[in-house]
Amino acid sequence: MTEKIGIGKAHSKIILMGEHSVVYGFPAIALPLKDIEVTCLIKEAKEKLKFDFYDTLSTAIYSALDYLHIKDKPISYEIISQVPQKRGMGSSAAVSIAAIRAVFDYFDQPLSDKELEILVNKAEIIAHTNPSGLDAKTCLSDQAITFIRNVGFKSFSVDLNAFLIIADTGIHGHTREAVNKVAKHEESNLPHLANLGRLAEIVQEAITQKDIQTIGQAMSQAHQELKAIGVSIQEADHLVEVALANKAIGAKMSGGGLGGCIIALTDSQKEAQAISEKLLEEGAVNTWIQKL
């Protein structure tokens, strides 16, 4: 008899625009990275799982079992992930989604999108105290998401015939520390935050116009503003410069900062490949290319 396995998958995400200014009421734009995935496998086990409620994965599995009123069925899990942790790519949200889907699959239970979103957000709240919900929303969506604090989420389609290169600096991001750093000097940072907000609005409009040049220029300007508020790092600045020197239309750090990834925009697959190779030569530990 073949062993029963529950399978759940989820994709990652990246922030295109709006880091930090989103905290001050401006829009943020996040993109699903549909080819960068997490898979969770649930199998039968000999003993019950021990739950660690500081761990998103544990919390997600516990939430799913609790929702299904399953208490005495020992299971084990395995995570196969292409998403690096703490890089602003939605690793914890993607792991939660995959795990919850796998539990429901293992127990042959239907799972609606609404139920899934509630359970994922429950796990994210326990693990991250006060998440915006943007990671979960984007990892659950096949479309880009725009988010404004106290207003909510909106999905929209992106069809640009452009390519986004994501490059990992290899350094863990420190979102909470970066947010606190920006807040500490809020008064002097406000002009930069207002500019970041304005640039996010420009990009949102440029996406509807399919204006790749404007998107690229705004990305590069946003990087300078993020540098000015002190949330970029030398390694990210270097990779941004490398991308721009190798014909990227625009480039910037992405996510909370003090580590994490940079993103670069180009309008051809060939150039995306060339930029990607150059970034790896110049210190990136991994790169991905996403068609927009």
Coarse morphology: globular
Q: Report the CATH topology name of the largest domain.
A: Ribosomal Protein S5, domain 2
Secondary structure: helix percent: 40-55%
- How far apart lie the N and C ends? 44 Å
GO cellular component, one term: cytosol
GO molecular function, one term: ATP binding
Domain GHMP kinase C-terminal: 205-283
Keywords: ATP-binding, Cytoplasm, Kinase, Lipid biosynthesis, Lipid metabolism, Magnesium, Nucleotide-binding, Transferase
Structural commentary:
This protein is α+β, with helices and mostly antiparallel strands. It has 2 domains: about 5-155, 2-Layer Sandwich (Ribosomal Protein S5, domain 2), CATH 3.30.230; about 165-290, 2-Layer Sandwich (Alpha-Beta Plaits), CATH 3.30.70.890. The protein has 9 helices and 9 strands. The strands form 2 sheets. Strands 1, 2, 3, 4 and 5 form a 5-stranded antiparallel β-sheet that branches. It has a 4-stranded antiparallel β-sheet with strand order 7-8-6-9. Helix 6 (about 185-210) packs antiparallel against helix 7 (about 210-230). The mean pLDDT is about 90.
